[in-house]
Every structure is written in C-alpha cells, then in structure tokens.
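Bench notes, afternoon.
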Amino acid sequence: MSSEPGPGLPFLPGCAFRDPMPHPCQGPVTDRVAPEHLEPPEHTSGEAGAPPDPPLDSPGELKTSFHRSQTLGYKNGYALSRLPTVGIGGERLYVNQLSQPDLDELSNTRPVLTYGQSKLTPPSGFVPAHVAFDKKILKFDAYFQEDVPLSAEEAYRIRQVGIYYFLEDDSISVMEPVVQNSGLPQGKLLRRHRVPKNDRGDHYHWKDLNRGMNITMYSRTYRIVDCDPFTQVFLESQGVELNPPEEMVFDPYTEKRRMPITKYTPPLQVDRLKQFLTYDKQVLRFYAVWDDAASMFGERQPYIIHYYLADDTVEVREVYQKNDGRHPFPVLIKRQRLPKTFVDRKKTFPSCVLEISDLEVLEWHTAKDFAVGKATTILGRTFFIYDCDNFTRNFYRDKFGITDFQPVEINKKQPEEVPQVIPPYNGFGILEDSLQNCFSLHPKPPRKDIIKMLENDHKVLRYQLALESPNPEDRKRRFILSYFLSDDMISIYEPRVRNSGIIGGKYLGKTRVAKPGSTTENATYYEPSDLTIGSAIEADPPVFLWRRQDKLP
C-alpha cells in the first residue's frame, strides 16, 4: 500500500492519503487507505478491442450519485461542524483546501514536545472611542479676570480655574478650587457638556486648546497658562506643537492680604529671648490684702500677687477660706503686663479700649514696684504687700541688695457684735415655739422632755377657782383649773350655770402660763408648787383665787 497522494492533492506529513474521488467500480467514497496499486477495471460492456469508457471527470460524465458530504458530527458528546471536502456527487472542492504558503508553513514548523505549539495573538479588533478614551482627561491650568466695580480696595479680581477636556465625548468642564470664607460661589463654574465654538454650530475640540492662548466660552475669556504631564504627552503624540508654559497670575488683593503688616518696632533695650531663657519658670510671690471696708458691704480680703520674671507679667489670685461665703473664682486679674503710667490722653481718646499697646503706656510695672510693706495700685485697686516667700527674698537680695523683709502684721478687725433684740411675746402659740422665729429662718420646734411626758402621762391636777373682780356678779363665778404634769400646761374651764346670763365653757386653752414679771428672754412659768389654796394666779389678765383642789387620781 502506498501513502503517496494522488495527482493534484496536497501531502501532509504523518497522514495517510485518502482519495476523495471514488472509483466507478467502488461505489461511494469511504474513509479508507488507498491501495498501493489499483488494477484497471475490467470492461464488462463492449467487445474486445473496443475503446475504454470515458473518465468520470470528462465533460460527458454521467453522475449517478447526488449525495452531499456530512458536515455535522459529534465528538465526546458535543456537536461539531466541519468544512466539506467534496461536493455533490463526490466532486472535489478546492475552496477548503490548504494553499501552497500554508503547506509550506506546516512543512517547516517543528513540533514542540513539552508545552505544545505556542498560540498566535489574535488580531486586534475595533475599539470604539468611548472605550479607548474612557477616563482620559486633558487638564489645563487657566485664569480669568473679573471686574469689581463696587470696591474701593480692588478694581478687578483674578480667579484661577482648571479646564477639563474629556476625550471620551469631547465635552468640557470648568472647575474653580473652593477657598474657605472667600464669599464667592466657587466649585463648578461650567458643567460638563460640549461647548459651542461659534454661531455656525461648531464645538471646541482638543486641537483648539494650547498653552499661552485665550479661549472664550460663554462671553468669559480664559487664559491657558499650563497643562499637566498627561496632556502634554497626548498632544505631542498627536503632532500638536505646544507653546511654552506661562506663570500663573495671582489675585493682587489676596496677595496683599497675605503680606504681613509692616510695623516699626523700636529696638528693645532688654533682650527678651535672653530674659526668657534665664528666668523661665521663676515667679515672685507676694502676699497682699485689699482693704475695702470703707465701702458698703466691703471687707478686707487676702490676695497673692505672682510676678513672672520671664516676661514681666503679673497675676493676682484670691485666697479663699472655708465657709467664707464667696464663689470659688481663683483668678482676680489674669496673667498680663500691667501698665503703671499712661501717656497723656486726648479728650477724643476713648476711656475704655480693648487692648493696651506700647503707644498708650509710658511705663509698665516691673519687679522694682513690689516691696514688702509698700502699697501698690493695680488697675484701680490698692494692694498692701505684707509678706513674700523665700525665693522672692533671695531674688531681691541678689538683684537689688534689699535685706529688709520684715513681714507686717495685719490686724484683723473683729466684726462688731450686733445685739439681738427679741420682740415682745404676742400671745400666739407657745413662747418657746414663737421664739425660734427670732433665731433662724427655718425654725425648729423646741425639744421636749420625753421621760417626763412618759412618767406623768394622763396625770392632771384640778383646782376650783374664783374670779377676783370688783364686779359682784363676777365674784360668784366658779372655774375649774387643770394642770397637766406631763408638759406643765394649764387649762381653765367654767361650768355652765342655768339662768346666770353667763355662757360657760372653755375659758383658757391648754397652754403654759407665765408668772407676773417674767420677760421673754427669761420666762418663768407656774409650777405645781405655786398652786396652793388661797394663792392668786394671773391668766391674761384676770386674777383667780384658789378655793379648793381635788385629790390626785
């Protein structure tokens, strides 16, 4: 058997030849290996010596098979389609055969044993503009000038903006950086859209943008001064010749506000930095008093004066005592430089200023102005310094040579005792109970003898009384006095007598009766020893005489 291909058919290395053209005597085409030698078919028709039949591919061939080749099949359960190699009736198709260059490439290709043949990169397909230029933006730095007609400090204003060109849809947006407390509507000045270029319907394109040029959008002219690196690379890659960048123009009024105010400061005789480094955290402490007893509701109050050597500032603190009745606010004068002598003020100068500068003060308080036994006036208050601490004594001894630091005794004035005047008893309630209103705003009831009340509970002394009166009718009246031993109270009752013309009943309610001559401060009351037969009792203001008494139950 020979594997050589037939005439006009391609040869594939490693593949057996399959003749797609069937022999007239072999029936339809089948997948079989071609034999090495095909014997010419015997002629069954015609006589011996007759001419052979014409070949099948001759024009006068008669077709007997009109089958179409199979193009659909299944492999591993999946439907696959393949290109036909023969046409109707078994005719050979040259359309789906490999060309000579393809055959040469296959013959020259060496097999790859390990990983197989490398895959070729497929040709790039069509990419639309909205995908190719997605999120690609050209940024230009620009500014525009805005007139300010109603300002005396500025005639125009420079506003810096950023022009963004979107390559995706050729739209433009203008943004201004937001500055806090600028008072201007900033942010998005021009929303993203295609900006018209002229009245003919044209729109701005990225070819119309360049550095160092003016662009007018909606009657506002922007000056483009620079662009970002991506924009520069993109424009240069498209063949656009970029102009040299320009410097950004700033607002003159804003730059003027940022400049520090020039002030003439005279040279100081004292080096503040050296003073701070030398006397940092060193404080002089003085003990002083402010005597304000001459004013209404005034008193003498203790204070502590702190003098900070680092910056010549003074602080005054109050000294609080327990239950002094003052709000605990420690600082009377906060730490600050205190003026000693002011410059002669004019009549037009306000008497109250927010801040005192060196222009209004001729002399400030220094450490020389504070000494033990000397009065110092600070912001209208006169403080008398009577003592200081040990560090202050050593500082004045080394700095100024002062050695006299004898503390001054401050005699505290005792408050004048105001005599308490107790008003006379008005007769309402018990005297001890009413007297508590003179001692406290929240009176408490007087304490009672509980043991006496328990021992003498329900023990009452009863006496019969007669009224001592110049009127003969009242002399005949009889009364019953009850003395309660539990709380030393007395009650008087008059029995009713028919047709006497006097209404009887309770004459004196249960109360304690004071003896004649007793005062509110030293009150004495009737006791059981004072109630004897024949004695008299005064009960507001009638006088009763004892007649008899009953037995104690």
